[in-house]
Design brief:
Arp2/3 complex 21 kDa subunit ARPC3; mainly alpha; 8 helices
Length: about 180
């Protein structure tokens, strides 16, 4: 296992900040959405598995200890343990999937699009299961169909757009970042 360099730590730190800023940006629409999934997909595609996963884990850890990095400037254990906390934790599955695919299969557009779609799907699965468990504990049982209608369906189109934009941007930025990696 290789050690992380100062450069890796810098990229991870900047990536944590980028995810936080993207979580604070709320795009007004019929159903407002943030740019968190865009940032998580982009970072995992650019940094790869290990640093991408560290960046997302660092973001979640900062939020867990109370730094207001989550959407709506929220932070603290309550944000993670609440009904939507599973989607935040699910970002780890997205970063794992996208980072692994990028490292293993390269950063061609089809690889990025497929891995990002799969990563977001895994985030949806984990987040929705979490939502159903926490909601049932606090309020009463909720059906899978209702949970999906509340938590997933409204975001499918915007997440699809964010996924495409993240893949296209990663394709453009990765050659620049990888050229500079060797130059220290």
């Amino acid at each position: 296992m290789s050690r992380m360099t100062a450069r890796d730590l810098t990229f991870i730190s900047v990536s944590i900040a980028l995810i936080a800023v993207c979580s604070w940006i709320s795009v007004p629409s019929a159903i407002p959405f943030t740019l968190q999934t865009f940032a998580v997909c982009l970072i995992a595609a650019l940094l790869g598995l290990r640093p991408g996963l560290w960046a997302v884990a660092g973001y979640i850890l900062l939020g867990a200890v109370g730094v207001p990095v989550f959407s709506g400037f929220r932070g603290g254990p309550g944000a993670l343990l609440g009904v939507t906390g599973g989607y935040i934790i699910g970002f780890l599955f997205t970063a794992l999937t996208v980072g692994f695919a990028a490292d293993r299969h390269g950063r061609r557009l089809p690889v990025l699009l497929f891995s990002m779609a799969l990563g977001i799907l895994l985030c949806y699965v984990f987040g929705t299961a979490w939502f159903m468990l926490v909601y049932a504990k606090n309020t009463g049982p909720v059906s899978l169909g209702t949970a999906l209608a509340w938590c997933v369906t409204p975001y499918l189109i915007t997440d699809g757009i964010k996924l495409v934009l993240a893949a296209l941007l990663a394709r453009r930025l990765y050659p620049v970042l990888s050229k500079r990696k060797g130059g220290g």
